[in-house]
């Protein structure tokens, strides 16, 4: 998925500044952002107050939207460097195409994982014949310096490990929880889990105390560590937790995201994760000149032009504002 902000700012993220070594309960509301012509998302990361959770550096939550008789998601070809995209659907279908020649229809409960590495382009659109609802999350993971120039790669995993206990079905999207490991390739210690809670469920999840965590509420009425988390918001939890108490008043879907705090400083602008403003400018120029990123074949339309770079110089910033 693309950041379609027409005036994106260059920002610097990462490092341990702003990482809470002890548990916190920091509720972050989503910011509505238009994505293409027909989709509005709630941007939860980066946001005012928080820029990263482990290596997770971007979170968009969209839906549930009624797209019957409408185009649904329509995101033209656009470029990425230095990151992984994690596509996770709760309802609906999205067709992924990329410059490697990959063509895949994404569906709920199946992991679409794209490693951009040194350069890739992709598009995401609802198929012409699609279901009534569209609901999901698009997540980015920053690649560490040792791997950020790897060759691009597309993975699609139709079977993921599931943990079940009374009132909870937990699907491990990325990383590992309670001995269940996702087949998705990860380059830093992290975890992403889809939590499907039945009405009245009360459970405690095992956590890694050295990880920092956050929970996204996708639907329902749930409490996380005693804090009600409204739909479309993110509760940042800090580090130092051996476990996490969850309670659902109604059937609820949550996404647990966490990881080892990302020590490296990264620069984010538009769809690029880099280490300097010069690297961002070079990637933008390559995209506009038709170099480096390849071509997304099969998409009916023009690729997305890059916004103009801001006139202001790069401003070093930490993980939290």
UniProtKB/TrEMBL annotation:
Gene Ontology MF terms in the entry: metal ion binding
- Which stretches are annotated as coiled coil? none
Query: Which coenzymes or cofactors are required?
Result: Fe cation
Region spans: Disordered: 1-21
Residues bound to Fe cation are 78, 80, 122, 124
Where's the Pirin N-terminal domain?
43-141
- Domain Pirin C-terminal intervals: 193-292
Q: Which InterPro entries match?
A: Pirin (IPR012093), Pirin_C_dom (IPR008778), Pirin_N_dom (IPR003829), RmlC-like_jellyroll (IPR014710), RmlC_Cupin_sf (IPR011051)
Alphabetically ordered keywords of this record: Iron, Metal-binding
Pfam families membership: Pirin (PF02678), Pirin_C (PF05726)
Q: How is the cofactor bound?
A: Binds 1 Fe cation per subunit.
Task: Please state which protein family the record places this protein in.
Answer: Belongs to the pirin family.
Protein name, entry field? Pirin family protein
Originating species: Microbispora oryzae
């Amino acid at each position: 998925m693309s950041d379609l902000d027409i005036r994106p700012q260059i920002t610097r993220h990462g490092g341990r500044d702003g990482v809470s070594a002890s548990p916190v309960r920091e509720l972050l509301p989503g910011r509505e952002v238009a994505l293409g012509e027909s989709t509005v998302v709630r941007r939860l990361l980066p946001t005012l107050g928080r820029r990263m959770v482990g290596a997770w550096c971007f979170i968009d939550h969209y839906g549930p939207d009624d797209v019957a008789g409408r185009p649904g998601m329509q995101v033209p070809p656009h470029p990425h460097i230095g990151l992984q995209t994690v596509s996770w659907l709760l309802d609906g279908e999205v067709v992924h195409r990329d410059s490697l020649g990959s063509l895949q229809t994404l569906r709920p409960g199946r992991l679409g994982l794209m490693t951009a590495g040194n350069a890739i382009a992709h598009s995401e659109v609802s198929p012409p014949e699609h279901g009534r609802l569209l609901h999901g999350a698009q997540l980015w993971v920053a690649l560490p310096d040792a791997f950020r120039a790897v060759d691009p790669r597309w993975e699609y995993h139709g079977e993921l490990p599931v943990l079940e206990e009374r009132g909870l079905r937990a699907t491990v999207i990325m990383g590992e929880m309670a001995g269940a490991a996702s087949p998705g390739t990860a380059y830093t210690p992290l975890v992403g889990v889809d939590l499907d809670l039945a009405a009245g469920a009360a459970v405690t999840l095992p956590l890694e105390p050295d990880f920092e965590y956050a929970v996204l509420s996708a639907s329902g009425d749930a409490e996380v560590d005693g804090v009600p988390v409204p739909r479309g918001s993110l509760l940042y939890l800090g580090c130092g937790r051996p476990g996490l108490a969850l309670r659902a008043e109604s059937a609820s879907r949550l996404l647990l995201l966490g990881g080892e705090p990302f020590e490296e400083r990264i620069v984010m602008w538009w769809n690029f994760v880099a280490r300097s403003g010069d690297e961002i400018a070079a990637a933008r120029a390559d995209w506009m000149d038709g170099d480096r990123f390849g071509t997304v074949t099969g998409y009916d339309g023009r690729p997305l032009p890059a916004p103009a770079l801001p006139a202001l110089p790069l401003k070093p910033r930490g993980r939290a504002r």
